[in-house]
């Protein structure tokens, strides 16, 4: 059945959001990736803190440059972060997304693996046809 012919799927009264019945397949996939991108890095940090202590993150950050492969991955993630932050700002402003900036600090606090799917989820919600009437709020 064509998308335009499908009835709205929002009997929950929650509106369109990640938990509402009106999410599409892309939104569900991006929500799942956002959740995984939040849980995985935080689990690794929690395991490190449990093993070495809650305040011993100097060794954690020192490990980012202890070998050439680790340094290469660190620089790779830094370059990806800068490119993502610029693109998110440009794309978010172009689409008039009010919360385009949220994934940028999220990438610094959690990781790019959380921030990118989060931004893509917010972007997907902002470009939905139902939002064409001015609700590009996410």
Keywords:
138 residues, mainly alpha, 5 helices, 60% helix, elongated
What features would you describe in this structure?
The structure is a single chain. Helix 4 (103-109) runs antiparallel to helix 5 (112-126). This protein is elongated. The chain has 138 residues and is mainly alpha-helical. It has helices spanning 25-52, 57-62, 68-94, 103-109, 112-126. The chain is built from 5 helices and no strands. Residues 1-15 have low confidence and may be disordered. 60% of the residues lie in helices and 0% in strands.
What topology does this entry show?
Elements: H1 25-52, H2 57-62, H3 68-94, H4 103-109, H5 112-126
Helix pairs in contact: 1-5, 3-5, 4-5
How many alpha or pi helices?
5
Percentage of residues in helical conformation? 55-70%
Largest sheet: none
Q: What is the count of β-strands?
A: 0
Overall geometric form? elongated
Succession of helices and strands: HHHHH
Brief write-up:
This protein has helices at 25-52, 57-62, 68-94, 103-109, 112-126. It is an all-alpha fold.
């Amino acid at each position: 059945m064509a998308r335009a012919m499908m009835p709205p799927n929002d009997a929950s009264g929650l509106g369109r959001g990640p938990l509402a019945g009106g999410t599409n397949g892309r939104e569900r996939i991006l929500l799942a990736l956002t959740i995984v991108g939040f849980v995985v890095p935080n689990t690794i940090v929690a395991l490190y803190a449990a093993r070495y202590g809650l305040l011993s993150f100097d060794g954690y950050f020192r490990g980012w440059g202890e070998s050439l492969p680790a340094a290469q991955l660190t620089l790779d993630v830094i370059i990806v972060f800068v490119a993502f932050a610029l693109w998110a700002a440009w794309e978010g402003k172009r689409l008039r997304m009010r919360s385009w900036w949220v994934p940028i600090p999220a990438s610094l606090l959690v990781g790019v693996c959380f921030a990118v799917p989060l931004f893509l989820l917010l972007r997907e919600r902002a470009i939905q046809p139902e939002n064409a009437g001015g609700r590009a709020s996410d």
